[in-house]
Specification:
By secondary structure, the chain is an all-alpha fold. 78% of the residues lie in helices and 0% in strands. The protein has helices spanning 16-26, 28-43, 46-52, 54-62, 74-100, 103-123, 127-155, 161-185, 192-198, 201-213, 218-223, 227-238, 244-258, 263-267, 273-288, 291-296, 298-304, 309-333, 339-364, 373-391, 394-405, 408-440, 443-462, 474-478, 481-488. Its main location: membrane.
C-alpha cells in the first residue's frame, strides 16, 4: 500500500463537469434545510391548523400564553419532528443501497422520495395523506444525508476534500434561508402553506435530473468489482491523465475492505469502537448546542423577546443569511485550518453567546411584558454570533468527521449510524424544545451552554485530528497512535 505522504503528489484539476457534479450532489442538502426553514411557519398558520389540527387551533386561540410558553402543543410538535424518525430508519436502508447499488442510484432514490413527499403534503386533503407526505420526505432526507456527504468526500481530491464535503451543509443553510423567505411571503396567503410544501418539488426534480447526469463514485465502482469503469471515473473526476498512483491506492483499500464480511460486527471490535463512539458523540453534541432549537423556532424565540410577528420573521431572515455567509467563509478556510481548532474556537463563541442570552433574559424578561428594544437587538446579535460559530464548525464537521474517521470497510455502515443518530436527536430536540422552554424559561440557554462546555472538553481529550488524512487510508490511521492515540490508549 502506498505511503501516506504519497498523496501529496496526486494531481487534479477542477473542470466544469466536476464542479457541476459537486453541486448536483450537494443540492440534496437544500431539501433538508428547506423543510427546517418552512415547517415552523407552515404549522403556525391558522389555515393549516384549522384543517388538520382543529383541537390545537381551538386551544391556541383560547390559551393565555406567556413569554416562555408559546405554541407548546405536543401533537403539532410530533407532526413536525416525525420526519426525522423516518429519516433515522431510512438511513440504514440507504447504507445498503449505497453498498449494493452505488452512490448515484441512491441519490436518485432520494430525489424521488423528495418529489413524491412534497407533492403528497402539498395536495393533502386528509391527515393521513399529509402524514404520508411527511414520511416520504423524511425517507428522502435519510437517503440524501447518507449518500451526498459520502459521495462528495469520495469524488473530491484530498486538498479540497473538506471544502467539497461542506457544500452539503452550505446547501442546508441556503435551504433554511429560502424557507424563511417563503415563510415571509407565501404564508400570507390563506393557502400559502400548500405553496410552501409544494415548492420543494422544484429542487427535487433538479436533483433527479442531476443524478442521471453525474458519474458514479470511483471508489463505489471499485468496491463492486468494476475496476475499469472506476479508473475511467477517477480520470473524469480528476481532470488529468496521471491517476495511476491514486487508483492503485483505492484498489488496495477496497481489497482490504472486501476481507470484512460483516461490517456491523467489525464496528464492535477494538478498532471499530473508537470511531463509532466519536461519531455518535459528535451527533449528540451537534444537536445539544441548541442550534436546531433556534433554527426551528427562531420566530417563536424572537416573539418571546418582544418582536412582532413580521419583525420576528424578518429577524429570522437575517439569522438565516448569517448562517449561509458563515458556511461560505468555512469553505475558504476549512482545508487550511485543523478540525480541532475550528471546533474549539466555536465552542468558546457559542458558549459566550448562549450564556449572554440567558443572562439578559434572566434579568430583563418576565413571564409577561417585553424586552427593551436595545436589549432585544443585543439578543439578536448574540443569536447571530451563535449561529455563525455553529455554521463554520459543528454543523459541517458533524458530517465531515464521521466520514473521515471510518476506514473503507466500515465507512458506509458507520456513517449510516451517524445519520441515524443525528436524526434521532434532532427528533428529540424538536419534540421537546418548546416544552423545555416553558418549564426552564431562560435557564434553557444555560442548559445548552453546559453541553457546549462538555463538547470543548471532548475535543481536547478525545477527538483525533483528521485533516489531511487520505480517506482511503483511514483504516491505517485508526490503527496508529499518531492519529488517535488518546482514544486507543488503554
Amino acid at each position: 500500500m502506498p505511503d501516506l505522504q504519497d498523496n501529496n503528489v496526486f494531481k487534479s484539476k477542477i473542470t466544469d463537469y466536476v464542479l457541476a457534479c459537486w453541486i448536483f450532489a450537494a443540492l440534496s442538502g437544500l431539501m433538508f434545510g428547506y423543510d427546517t426553514g418552512i415547517i415552523a411557519g407552515v404549522t403556525g398558520t391558522d389555515d393549516f391548523l384549522n384543517k388538520f389540527f382543529p383541537e390545537s387551533y381551538k386551544k391556541r386561540a383560547e390559551e393565555l400564553e406567556t413569554n416562555y410558553c408559546r405554541h407548546d402543543d405536543k401533537s403539532v410538535q410530533l407532526f413536525k419532528s416525525s420526519i426525522y424518525l423516518a429519516a433515522a430508519v431510512a438511513s440504514f436502508f440507504a447504507a445498503k443501497a449505497c453498498s449494493s447499488l452505488g452512490r448515484r442510484p441512491t441519490l436518485m432514490m432520494a430525489s424521488v422520495f423528495f418529489v413524491s413527499g412534497s407533492l403528497s403534503a402539498a395536495v393533502a386533503q386528509t391527515y393521513r395523506v399529509l402524514v404520508l407526505g411527511r414520511i416520504l420526505y423524511g425517507i428522502g432526507i435519510g437517503f440524501a444525508t447518507e449518500v451526498a456527504p459520502l459521495f462528495l468526500t469520495e469524488i473530491a481530491p484530498l486538498q479540497h476534500r473538506a471544502a467539497v464535503n461542506i457544500l452539503f451543509q452550505l446547501f442546508v443553510t441556503i435551504g433554511i434561508f429560502i424557507g424563511n423567505l417563503v415563510n415571509y411571503g407565501a404564508l400570507m396567503h390563506p393557502t400559502g402553506w400548500r405553496t410552501s410544501l409544494g415548492l420543494a418539488t422544484v429542487p427535487g426534480l433538479v436533483i433527479l435530473a442531476g443524478s442521471i447526469f453525474i458519474t458514479e463514485s470511483p471508489l463505489s465502482l471499485v468496491e463492486r468489482g468494476k475496476e475499469t469503469e472506476g479508473k475511467g471515473a477517477l480520470r473524469k473526476y480528476r481532470g488529468v491523465e496521471e491517476i495511476d498512483a491514486e487508483f492503485e491506492q483505492i484498489v488496495a483499500a477496497c481489497e482490504q475492505a472486501r476481507q470484512v464480511k460483516h461490517p456491523y460486527l467489525k464496528l464492535l471490535g477494538r478498532s471499530g469502537i473508537p470511531p463509532l463512539f466519536i461519531t455518535i458523540t459528535i451527533q449528540i453534541f451537534q444537536q445539544y448546542t441548541g442550534i436546531n432549537a433556534i433554527m426551528f423556532y427562531a420566530s417563536v424565540l424572537l416573539q418571546t423577546m418582544g418582536f412582532k410577528s413580521d419583525m420576528s420573521l424578518l429577524s429570522s431572515l437575517v439569522i438565516g443569511l448569517v448562517n449561509v455567509c458563515s458556511n461560505f467563509m468555512l469553505i475558504y478556510v476549512v482545508d487550511r485550518v485543523e478540525r480541532r481548532k475550528l471546533l474549539l474556537v466555536a465552542c468558546v463563541q457559542m458558549f459566550i453567546s448562549q450564556v449572554g442570552i440567558g443572562v439578559i433574559l434572566s434579568f430583563h424578561l418576565l413571564e409577561t411584558g417585553t424586552l427593551d428594544q436595545s436589549l432585544a437587538g443585543v439578543v439578536v446579535v448574540l443569536v447571530c454570533t451563535f449561529v455563525m460559530a455553529f455554521a463554520w464548525s459543528w454543523g459541517p464537521m458533524g458530517w465531515l468527521i464521521p466520514i473521515e474517521i471510518f476506514p473503507i470497510e466500515t465507512r458506509t455502515v458507520g456513517y449510516s449510524i451517524a445519520v441515524s443518530s443525528n436524526m434521532l436527536f434532532t427528533f428529540v430536540i424538536s419534540q421537546t424544545f418548546l416544552s423545555m422552554m416553558c418549564f426552564l424559561k431562560y435557564l434553557i440557554f444555560f442548559f445548552f451552554s453546559t453541553w457546549i462546555l462538555v463538547m470543548g472538553i471532548f475535543v481536547v481529550f478525545l477527538l483525533p485530528e483528521t485533516k489531511g488524512m487520505p480517506v482511503d487510508l483511514m483504516g491505517v490511521c485508526m490503527e496508529t497512535t499518531s492519529c488517535v492515540e488518546v482514544v486507543l490508549q488503554g
